[in-house]
Amino acid sequence: MNIFYLGICLIRWESNFDTGAVGRLNSDGSEDHGLFQISDKYWCAREGVDGACGINCSDLENEELRDDAICARRIFRVTKFKTGNGFDAW
Predict the structure, then answer these.
(1) Which of 11, 14, 24, 69 could make a disulfide contact with 37, Cβ separation 3.0–4.6 Å?
(2) CA angle at residue 13 from 44 to 59, to 5 degrees?
(3) pTM for this one?
């Protein structure tokens, strides 16, 4: 299966295509943001610019999708390197 189609499926199940989605509070106190539901535990910052993606979480909650895709690719690559499957992050 093409990675593009897997990405579309991921977006559908993570955020139902809602660019402004913010997930419910996780047990560790983190939240997930945007189309890909990217966690603020490691990847984005609630305030300022920080995290492994070097982005503010609110930037993942708007209509500009390029930064979301760049961060999701970074998460996929790092997770694939660590576990062998990039989708394990989700």
Answers:
(1) 14
(2) 25
(3) 0.89
